[in-house]
């Protein structure tokens, strides 16, 4: 049924066995709600992602086995639709707008600054799982272009220097919270 080796190399499996068990338990709960029909694949994936925040390798393999489909087909669907994530979300989502106004005013330069500062690519999560980076088509704040949304807070007129300031404010807040708990 599921060809585990076909997608094993394509998906980064950095989770330990305990997490894998948790993923499978939640995936099993979702599968119980659906029949073993191929047309249930996308709704199953949507429900798994809503419970886990993304679609881990272990869940894809279990779904493939449940539906009697090749694992490569599950992976193909997950990577075809941009609604699905292969990486766990960060605690602080960073979304760079690349709509027309933001694009014209340097959205890609801002995206490159975030990539350099966070040390990740678009669609990835930092190793400490504090940040994840992605793009959006439009935030709807064109007069403030280029725009970045961090933790659902719109940051306007963003430049590479401003990216540093946004990250600095995050680390300062984090330090204050740590001092309050001592």
Shape: elongated
Query: Can you list the strand order of the major beta sheet?
Result: 2-1-3-4
By CATH, the topology of the largest domain is: Glutaredoxin
Strand segment count:
4
CATH architecture type of the largest domain? 3-Layer(aba) Sandwich
Strand content bin: 5-15%
Q: Give the CATH superfamily of the largest domain.
A: Glutaredoxin
Order of helices and strands: HHHHHEHHEEEH
- Number of alpha- plus pi-helical segments: 8
Q: Rounded to an integer, what's the Rg over CA atoms? A: 19 Å
Notable characteristics:
182 residues; alpha+beta; Arc Repressor Mutant, subunit A; Glutaredoxin; 4-stranded mixed sheet
How would you describe this structure to a colleague?
By secondary structure, the protein is α+β, with helices and mostly antiparallel strands. The chain has helices at 4-8, 17-31, 41-52, 57-67, 71-80, 100-104, 107-118, 160-180, and strands spanning 92-97, 131-136, 148-150, 153-155. The chain folds into two domains: 4-80, Arc Repressor Mutant, subunit A, CATH 1.10.10; 92-180, Glutaredoxin (3-Layer(aba) Sandwich), CATH 3.40.30.10. Helix 2 (17-31) packs parallel to helix 4 and helix 3 packs antiparallel against helix 4. It is elongated, with a radius of gyration of 19 Å. The termini are far apart.
